[in-house]
Amino acid sequence: MNPYEYGNKTAYGIESDALRYTWAGYFLTVIASSLIGDTAILIASIRYDTFKLHEVMTVIIQHIAVCDLMVTVMDVCPRFVSVTAGEWTFGTYWCYLLPYAAYYLNPVSILLICAMTTFKLLLMKYPDKFEGTTIKQAHRICWACWLAGLTFPVSFYHQGWDDIQFSYRIYHCNFVYSKDIWRSWLKPLLGFVFLFIPTCLVVVNTIYMLMIAKSSADQRDRGSLNWQGIMATVLTATFYCISVLPTFVYAAVEGFVHVHDKSKSFFHVQFYRVIHSFIFLNTMSNFFIYCLTVLSFRDFVKAKLARSYQFFTRAENVDRKTSTSVVVTLIASMATAAVTSHGRRISESDSELDTSYD
Q1: What is the pTM (predicted TM-score) of this model?
Q2: 288 contacts 37 by C-beta, under 8 angstroms
Q3: Closest to 48 (Cα-Cα) out of 297, 311, 321, 307
Q4: Per-residue pLDDT at 119 exceeds 90
Q5: How many CB atoms lie within 10 A of CB 110?
Q6: In 72-148, which ranges are continuous DSSP H helix?
Q7: pLDDT for 247 beyond 70
Q8: Helix (H) or strand (E) holding 164
Q9: Which long-range contacts (CB under 8 A, 24 or more apart) does 214-221 make?
Q10: CA dist., res. 85 & res. 9, Å (int)
């Protein structure tokens, strides 16, 4: 493959403005959902302590929210601007820097979700052993995920820090993988260790959790389980699996799809663009998942929305009252001016009559 092949705008760029703005609208939705939702999650969990879950679960949720915010700022926002402008507008420096951030944060997000499902399963299976896990230990688990994610950017830097070009397939700067070591074993190895294995663990853990939950429900022992935490974990894992499913399909089928001109191939252009955008469903979904499953967080959001509504309603009423007062004052001033003017005219007329009589 020509390392600069996907930098050809004519061959790989989105020709239709309507389609390009549709993609931009999708990225804008992800940005708004993540910035508002993940910020709300952090404020609610840190300042107001509204997540009535196990402390370890809350800590992992906080780390996932921070990671999603960083993904939004460093990965989604540049794509939105590039798709809207139709080209890369951030310059060479950011073109080299941002791919490292993207390839660092995505594995971290996967590992954090894997840690979330694993701990929840252990908590359900062995409550006596893991119920006493502390917040400090939870942060250590999360920091281990952050450190493990450095394997990707370190590998890229070691094999050629500037092996990066802007790709019109994803409207973002991306690694070219020009060295044979990537295609021979390094890229498959990293993908297997940091994508395939954690995803398999997420799937297995989720299925096992559902089996335990079903067994508990059949035995009418529902009170022994925290169903809010179970549903939050299961839905988080489900949305993650849905978001990465197209990536696995592309990786499995790519070797069997042979075309003469990739720019004319739906699989290598449009489908590839979809899998790189579909992953952001995981970034934008957490706020809605927790609103649906965690009652304390839902009540917090409702209370804040109600206060916001009251604030804007009160402000609107004050504006109306102010406008009415201004109008009444203006009318009163005009009436006073008219009466005063009329009185002056009467006085002037009386004076003229007196002069004529004299």
Answers
A1: 0.84
A2: yes
A3: 297
A4: yes
A5: 24
A6: 77-85, 91-125, 127-130, 135-148
A7: yes
A8: strand 164-167
A9: none
A10: 12
| DSSP β-bridge partners for residue 166 | 173
Neighbours of 113 (CB within 10 A): 27
355 falls in which pLDDT band (50, 70, 90)? very low
For the chain, the straight-line distance linking the first and the last C-alpha, in angstroms and rounded, comes to 115
CA 315 to chain centre: 31
Residue ranges of the domains in the chain? 5-293, 303-358
CATH superfamily of domain region 5-293: Rhodopsin 7-helix transmembrane proteins (1.20.1070.10)
Reported as a pLDDT band with limits 50, 70 and 90, residue 29 is very high
Q: Specify the higher pLDDT residue, 331 or 160.
A: 160
CA-to-CA distance for 119 and 126, rounded, in angstroms? 10
pLDDT at 129: 92
Give 245: exposed, middle or buried? Use CB within 10 Å, 0-12, 13-18, 19+.
middle
pLDDT at 320: 60
Task: Find the mean pLDDT for residues 132-149.
Answer: 95
Average pLDDT, the chain: 86
For 177: left if phi > 0, alpha if psi spans -120 to 50, otherwise beta; the answer is left
